[in-house]
Amino acid sequence: MPRPLSTAAWLPAAAFVLIWSTGFIVGKAIVPLADTSLFLLGRFAVAGLMFVGWSLAARAAWPPLREAPRHLLAGALMQGLYLCAGYGAIAQGLPPAIMALLGALQPLLTALLAIPLLKELPSRRTWQGLALGALGVALVVAPAMQAGLDGAARPLSPWIVLLGVLAIVSITMGTLLQKTAIATCDLRASSAWQSLGALLVAAAMVAVQAAGAPLHWHGAPALWAGLAWAAVGLSGAGTWLLVSLVRRGQAANAAALMFLAPPLAALQAWLLFGERLSGVQALGMAVAGAGVWLCQTRGRMRHAEAR
Predict the structure, then answer these.
(1) Relative to the CA of 223, which of 46, 189, 248, 286 has its CA 20 to 30 Å away?
(2) What digits encode the pLDDT tens for the residues 35-75?
(3) Do 78 and 199 touch, CB atoms closer than 8 A?
(4) What is the pLDDT of residues 93-115, one digit of tens each?
């Protein structure tokens, strides 16, 4: 029989999923109000200042400067390149549903790469959960994906799809880096460095875009509210919870929680924007939930050396 996690163990996972799923809503809301790279620059800057203030107030131990590049790289991959490439792909015409479907590959890729890099070998139960999770996400985004392809003004460029794939590879590698030497550093101080790494990527994107065309920023209340939530909620609490889960458990099992983000985002879009929620999507939510449950219960991971 599977051993379910205790309520206390589920709370951080549930909080992470609820917070992470709002990223789809924030992304949709800010597109007409600001250039995404400029928005991300502000998001990472606010999050970085928050973590610096928290670290100083708590007198957290900072890593030696010689180790700073590792933290910068982790943040650049896990947040900076992931979000800049993902938002950039959508801005260039990649339907958000396809981006969400590509995102469903991230837990699978994490599980595969964790075998040679972290010596973590998923159990059969975990592989079954990962497969169910990916199938559930595919069912949830299928209607929107079909609508996006049917309504596309031009055929989808493979380069745009590759940009979306780059985003997924980036967050996967950034997630795996959290299990390496930087895992011994205080998470608050590490998060401050990682926010700076993400900020540097966004700053480079802003510089490139500003050289080609003027950037727009319409300071509407909705934009400022979205920026506050994206910085404090997503880059702050959401990323902190994800890294905590990765550090305490197994990379693939923590990543599997992301399967629940698209279903919850579809539910939020139905509640907030009145978007249609079909029976197929409801089935996909149930399937994704079953997959995550499998990943979070008994037989989650074992070390490759044990075989």
Answers:
(1) 189
(2) 999 999 999 999 999 999 999 999 999 999 999 999 999 99
(3) no
(4) 777 777 777 888 899 999 999 99
Domains of the chain, residue spans: 7-306
Burial of 267 (0-12, 13-18, 19+ CB in 10 A): middle
d(CA 60, CA 150): 52
- Cβ-Cβ contacts under 8 Å for 51 (sequence gap 6 or more): 188, 189, 191, 192, 195, 236
**Is the full-model pTM beyond 0.90?**
no
Q: Which residues contact 174 (CB under 8 A, 6 or more apart)?
A: 74, 75, 76, 77, 78, 79, 82
Rounded Cα distance, 229 and 202, in Å: 18
Q: What secondary structure, in 3-state letters, does the chain show? A: CCCCCCHHHHHHHHHHHHHHHHHHHHHHHHCCCECHHHHHHHHHHHHHHHHHHHHHHHCCCCCCHHHHHHHHHHHHHHHHHHHHHHHHHHHCCCCHHHHHHHHCHHHHHHHHHHHHHHCEEECHHHHHHHHHHHHHHHHHHHHHHHHHHHCCCCCCCHHHHHHHHHHHHHHHHHHHHCCCHHHHCCHHHHHHHHHHHHHHHHHHHHHHHHHHCCCCECCCHHHHHHHHHHHHHHHHHHHHHHHHHHHHCCHHHHHHHHHHHHHHHHHHHHHHHCCCCCHHHHHHHHHHHHHHHHHCCCCCEEEHHHC
Question: Which of 139, 138, 112, 137 has its CA nearest to residue 127?
Answer: 112
Angstrom distance (rounded) from CA 169 to CA 179: 16
- Say if residues 72 and 197 touch (Cβ distance below 8 Å): yes
